[in-house]
Amino acid sequence: xxxxxxxxxxxxxxxxxxxxxxxxxxxxxxxxxxxxxxxxxxxxxxxxxxxxxxxxxxxxxxxxxxxxxxxxxxxxxxxxxxxxxxxxxxxxxxxxxxxxxxxxxxxxxxxxxxxxxxxxxxxxxxxxxxxxxxxxxxxxxxxxxxxxxxxxxxxxxxxxxxxxxxxxxxxxxxxxxxxxxxxxxxxxxxxxxxxxxxxxxxxxxxxxxxxxxxxxxxxxxxxxxxxxxxxxxxxxxxxxxxxxxxxxxxxxxxxxxxxxxxxxxxxxxxxxxxxxxxxxx
Length: 281
Hints:
The protein is mostly helical.
């Protein structure tokens, strides 16, 4: 018994050391970004990239620039927040409904439709750029938020994820609801949706990250400077004539905050029971 206890403690210590080392590796770039955001751009250009903290040279002027002096950053930030919120809500709503239909109903062509969903997941974005670009021109959606959001509002990956999740839910609840006279939409929103909280929590984070970090498609659709998203705006600060590190580094730090907050808010969704709220309906 003592040998097993010692082995378990040794394994715990080893796991702790390994995971601590992995965390340090992943957090090092963020630490560097945070430290650099308080340095003047000229110092970073003269001394290069370093993790050395020089408290005498650290200043809040970079953050004053992006919040009070240069209004472009707040505009980019607002655009990214609107597009991300719109994309995430639409993607969760429509993708969950499609996943529910593929998981619950039996109809002709169901397997073919699911195969098409899997096939679309494998298609690179670059192949779709030209036809989607022409479609946005036809629909007069160029340089609009909807032009960025609508082509990808129904995510094949989200459909697949929700379908697989709903398949694992007890079908007896659906049958009992139908016997009681519930309509299909009421069954979904009152019974299935509460059971899918962990799935909604996971996909909220993934879909929001996808939209927040999107670069290629927004770059194609958006034309005016006032409609640019945060990734495009920060990239525009890197030019052959000079790089505005005074805005890039603090801007990059601030860009991490919404996703971090979203992750913290959705942590509970991962640990809630699958029947939380479902039996009470």
